[in-house]
Amino acid sequence: MILTGPEISAAANDGRIRICPFNAEQVNPNSYNVRLGSTLLTYTDPVIDAHRHNPTHAVMIDREGYVLRPDELYLGHTMEEAGSDTFVPLLFGRSSVGRLGLFVEITAPIGDLGFHGQWTLMLSPVRPLRVYPGMKIGQIMFFVATGSVELYRGKYQASTGPQPSQYWRDPIKAGTP
């Protein structure tokens, strides 16, 4: 079951969902709008290697915005810290942003129970697109979990700003003998 807007508001007020800062005007019929933070990361090496740390370059988005270019992966972040120990969050791009040709969070929309922090966003434009800090970029939906719950304690907990992949830190990696 998906939470409705009024239930998202009630859960944010009683602590079952944490959204900081919370703004009632960002509540939709069954989701909560999140805004783009002011920092972007890009990988600097021409080839990203899944088995090692990949260096990144940070870009600050100012009031004039920043133009995203096709064929580049940008790691952005939500302004809001969002999570729940009770409900499973899923983050998707807003349809109005998709209509601008921006893919947001296509491959990893599900959040873990117990994750609390700013969400890293994978941003991929199909053509040059100017984005701005604070623009509504995505929406989080919350789903009821069934069964016993084990809360997230992973490497991205309490994230602030965009986080590059830490796949290389996983003890078991695909393709490793």
Automatic annotation (TrEMBL):
NCBIfam families: dCTP_deam. Keywords: Hydrolase, Nucleotide metabolism. This is dCTP deaminase. CDD domains: trimeric_dUTPase. Residues 157-177 are annotated as: Disordered. Residues 157-166 have a biased composition (Polar residues). The keyword Iron does not apply.
